[in-house]
Every structure is written in structure tokens, then in C-alpha cells.
Amino acid sequence: MLTMKRLILIPLSLAFILLLGACGMNLNNMNPFQMMKSSDDRPGNPMMMMHGKGNTQMVDSTGENELNIPPVLESDKETGNNISYAIEAKKGQTEIFEGIQTETLGYNSSFLGPVVKLKKGQTAHLKLKNSLDEETTFHWHGLIIGGEADGGPHDVIQPGEEKEITFKVQQEASTLWFHPHPLGKTAKQVYEGLAGLIYIEDDMENPYVYGENDFPLIIQDRTFNDQKQLDYRFAQFPDGTIGDTLLINGTLNPRLTVNKEKVRLRLLNGSNARNYTFKLSNNQSFEQIASDGGLLNEPVELTELQLTPAERAEIVVDFSEIEKNEDVELITDDGTVLLPFKVKGEKEEVKDEMLEPLNPVTISNEEMQQQVSKEIVLSGMGHHVSINGKKFDKDRIDFIQKKGETEIWEIYNKPNMMGGAIHPFHIHGTQFKVISINGEEPPENLKGYKDTIALDPGDKAIIAVKFEEAGIYMYHCHILEHEDNGMMGQIKVE
Ligand code: C2O
Ligand code: CU
Ligand code: CU
Q1: Residue with the nearest Cα to atom 1 of ligand 1?
Q2: Which residue of 13, 73, 79, 283 could cross-link 114, Cys pair, CB 3.0 to 4.6 Å?
Q3: CA angle, corner 242, sides to 239 and 246, nearest 5?
Q4: How confident is the model at residue 55 (pLDDT cuts 50, 70, 90)?
Q5: Ligand nearest, relative to CA of residue 430
Q6: pLDDT > 70? residue 154
Q7: Cβ proximity of 70 and 197 under 8 Å
Q8: pLDDT over 60 at 184, yes or no
Q9: Pocket of ligand 1 (CB under 6 A)
Q10: Which residues have CB atoms below 5 A from the ion given as ligand 2?
């Protein structure tokens, strides 16, 4: 049946195709599936942007599978302040759908990776091995680390090769992650399963216990083909690949069983391109306690929270008043069920220990008054994305900055004639502070350290950036297809 929406969409779709032609986009490069999808619900599609949404609807989680909790990686050796780990990127098969093996990639496992725990002050020795049959890199997203160990596109490890890196852990307790970064192939490798978590700990006591009331949630959307395989070439879309199937920690149709108590959830948007606005189905509020780079100065009470690709947030949800058969779910703002919770047991002593950040984040007067010295303009869509009008060139250094000195960067998301899209802007090797967004003080939950910031079309953010280490670092849009399409630049810190 042709609905009203359809009737409007048809002429609009034609307009879209004409526009693409006018933009010089080669439609022959798109397979028929994408052509069909792009006239209806793919991101980057002007119709959807006019509606202010760029999302294929995801299927609700039925909650039939208990959430997989990634194992904590065991160290090879720990002596004094030194800790050694071995991390191997490899291929494997994973039973995501009952009784079916899906070809996947993972770190030290067939799919995704373990939690790598590091402590502030430690010297870490990581032995990295590439057991894939293609080149890869190991990038530590959010880690303050020298450029030579950061794992950007220059740092390729060939199939079968190993590399050892050593660095000092110098930042506060936080939830970071690691993923590959090979030039032009980041999106595909992450899509196929390469992503793991890094937990930095410091002297602060964590009253929560991993796997008991402290859970990571790696949120990803994927498209599986008829054989239930992840076929990136089939699924990919130049403006950002999104899927209809949700996986959390690699679990299909996940549910999480919790006690009647406060629970700490560490959310990572590990998707290639999808944005999520998280809510609880009963509209209950929760507290955000940490952002990308660690604890906020104070918990922030929220009823919804947006994460764009690569962003993290730690939230505390109070289940102590939830009765056994009440349905509480983690949902998105459009009502998609991501994670049903099953509340069990009796009410526990509710922990009210506040997590106090050891090093509160402050913005000095000096930083407030400092002039902008680096300007970044994000623009374009699909294959036509750029930063400051240029595409990534591995032989070009775009900016220089002095180690240990704060500079003020202005990041602008330039709208296009169709409106534009949110670009999550990320800088390697540092945690920055947000000074303002569109001339206004940032919201409370953006007042902590960040390594990725979401910019709506037309948004201008002012951030204070300091690198503690030297080297060459990337900055880029974290829609992985935008990154692969050249929406990336490099800065040399000396
Ligand atoms: Cu999540 Cu360039 O990285
Ligand atoms: Cu990064
Ligand atoms: Cu982008």
C-alpha cells in the first residue's frame, strides 16, 4: 500500500538522485541494494535529514540472551610498576546467531576484545601481534601516549608481524578503547569486530565490582546478510554504515540481570556511524559520572544522553526501587529497546559512596581568554567530506603544536545545502576541555575531559588542547567512513 509518506518520498528520492549526480557522486559505485536503501532510509539521505533523522530503524532487543561480559585480560607479567600484556588481532568464527558461525575479527578472541586494565603511574609494555591476513594498526583511543606508539595509520603492522610498545600511564581513571586505524580500512576492520576496552584506574576507590554491578556496554549496529555474515562491502555506505541489528558486547538480543541496587554502566558507542540518545523506558533519571576522559567533577542527573561514535559515558542507574516484574529497559529516544534489565533479589544496601575525582577538571581564566590559534572546518558528506577543504594526505602535516602548551582550537561543522550531519570530532593522544559551544558554556556533562566531541550542523565548539607527548597525531571525524574517506588531518607535536 502506498502511504502518504511513500508518495512524498518518491519525488524526493528522484531529487536526491539528481542531486547526487550534480555533486559528482558516481552512482555506478553503489550497488542496487544501496540505491534502493538510499532512497528511503540511509543516513546522508536528504529526505531523512529534512526530517532531522538519519537512521534505519533498529530491531528491538528481545532480551533472550544474557549480556556477554568481556573478560579482563590477564597480564603476562607484573613487577613493581611494570605491567606486560600481549594483544593479538585475529580472525575467528563466532556464534552470534544460535547454531550459526559468523566470520569475525577480534583481539585475543574471535570477536571484539578483552578489557585491558592499566593503572596511573604504571609503565605498560604491550606486545602486539597481527595474525590477520591484512595489515592493521593498534590505536589507543583516548590514551595520552607518544605519537610513535599511538597506532595511527603510519604505524602499520604487517600480517604475521609483531611490535612492542612501552609507555607510561599518566591519566586518571577512565574508560578508553582500542581499535584498528589502517589507512582507508578502519571502518571495515572495526565493523568486522576489532574493538576492545581499556580501563585506566588510579588511587580512587571504585565501590563497584566488574561484572557484578559495573558493566561495560559496547553498543554497535550491524547488518547481517542472508547467511548471517558481516559483509562490509555489501553493507557499507559512504556517508556512514548503519545496520538494523543491535549488538551489545557482541551479544544479539541482550538482556542484563542486575541486583536491586545502584549499577554503574560504562557505555561506549562503538558503532561506525550511528548516534544514540539513551533513555530508560520508565523515564527514570540516572546520573552521568564520567565522560570520555574520566570522572566529571560532580555527577550530572539526566533523563537522556546522546553518544555519537567513539564517545563514552559512565552512568549510574538506581534499580533499588524497581520491583521484580517491572519492565525497565535501556532504550533510544525513538523507543527502540536496546537492553532489557531483569531485576533480581532483595534490595541491597545502596552504595552512596560518591566517586570523587582526584583531579577535578577546571578551566583557568587564562584558557578562557586565550585566542583561537587553530581552526578546523568540517564539511561535506559521503565521498566529499573534508577538513579545512582538504582530504587526508599522509605526507602532509596540517598543524604544528608545542608539547605541554595549551592551544585553543575552534571546531566548526559547516552546514551544506541539505542541512548536514553531526560529525563527532576526535583528536588522538590527548584529552581536551570544552570551553564553549556556540558561544555558550557547555552543558554540565561536557565539562569533563573529552577526546571526541559531537557537533551538530552549524555548531562551533571552542576547546583547549594540550599534548603531553610529542609525535604525529591524527584528528578526524569518527564516523568511520568519513575518516576513511579523508575527513582526517595530522598534527605534529614537538
Ligand atoms: Cu578512535 Cu583515530 O580513533
Ligand atoms: Cu583515537
Ligand atoms: Cu563526519
Answers
A1: 141
A2: 73
A3: 165
A4: low
A5: 2
A6: yes
A7: yes
A8: yes
A9: 139, 141, 179, 181, 310, 426, 428, 474, 476, 478
A10: 141, 428
